[in-house]
Amino acid sequence: MPVYEWDFAFVLNYRGVLWEGFLGTLKIGFSSLGLGIVIGLLLALMRLSRLWVVRAPAIAIIEFFRATPVLVLLFWCYYALPIIIGVAFDAYTAAIITLGFQTGAFMAEVYRAGIVSIDRSQWEGGKALGMSLRQLMTRIILPQAIRRMVPPFLERSFELMKTTTQASVITYGELLYKALLLSAQLYRPLEIFTLVAVFYFVMLTIASFAVRYIEHRIDAARL
Amino acid sequence: MSEAILRVSSLHKYFGDHHVLRGVDLEVQRGEMVCMIGSSGSGKSTFLRCLNFMEYPSAGRIELMGKVVGRESGARDGAPTYAYEERELVGLRTHVGMVFQQFNLFPHMTVMQNVMEGPVTVLRTGREEATERARENLTKVGLLDKADQYPSRLSGGQQQRVAIARALAMKPDVMLFDEITSSLDPELVGEVLNVMRDLSAEGMTMIVVTHELGFAYHLARQVLFLYEGVIHEQGTPDEVLKNPQQERTKGFLAGFTDFYF
Question: Which of A152, A216, B158, B184 could join B154 via S-S bond, C-beta 3.0 to 4.6 A?
Fold first, then answer.
């Protein structure tokens, strides 16, 4: 069996390309996250509404995005949607719309779960003091709910960072896409994809430690 | 000269098809303590929760401090029904304090913040005045030294006393107590009842759902025995607790082996 000769030095000459891809990953990751946070908040508020005409579309959107593979949505948003609405998106726009909505659908559930996890007795305690719904939310429910939302929120953000690799299929220049290009040019896929894996591993491990630190601080503040 | 602070007539409450309250009438004078007893499921907590609209009555009239709550909208079970506006109820609740079986303190706030929350957020009282008032009320329940603690650090009895101080801080006209000693260890019940006794002595109007018959006997002016959603027997503590006329009342009281006068 022939032994493969690893040659990272050769590949690292082209690290600029990978670095560009890495920045692309961060860009698409954070813009999708930002969009997802806002969309998620809207969907969560709609979903908690007492009016079913408001609640129903939110549920439909949430379930649709949670039940549809990102890859399919990306293709659809990039190739089909422009034909339907007559506006073409570039790969970046198509990717953040897809990932933003998908993240929003999951975030909506994170927010909602956080809010409904607060015991009914807390609502009643505030209500008995004569609080309005708005006062109840801002003073009693959200301060407690947000603490519970943090871990699943961060978990979801991690998931998103990994999902950004799928944007490569619509030629968005994130890390994986750059790696594919590079390996086609250099014929060194093993080294390149090893490097890509290490990139993700390092990035998410550092983030993971940061998350644990944050969670620890939240627990400490809770006494 | 007494003044009726609360008048309830023909109060009905349904949960789905379940007819929990079947026409309850009650009049409470300012400064009086009314105790409600009865087995679980008799509707006494539901009745109490209708008085500050934690539950909306299905039918019947509630008049608080001379003012009928809600607008008459129809009739059911021979009693008028009312439409309620959230805005009116929110305002009403600032006058009707409630203390719960499970304390319902805010765990993310210190004892002091818990007691200040109502005045500051709801009544828009200035911080200085609210702090002053909170200190007074915490002194009243004997917990000023715990002001900076979080509720989770306190015993059940202490938490319940904080909850009383929190309700008091709103300067309510009536206070509702929903089995507030039922989830406490027996040795902690006394400290809470003592606070209630002091409040009553100061002239607070109190409606108390309780299983503490001794407390009811010594402090209540009226005792109500609820059975299957109606007031089955009503009168002075002597009448209801010592010389009950109804078989159901006798049966209920016979269950309390540790109740001697």
Answer: B158
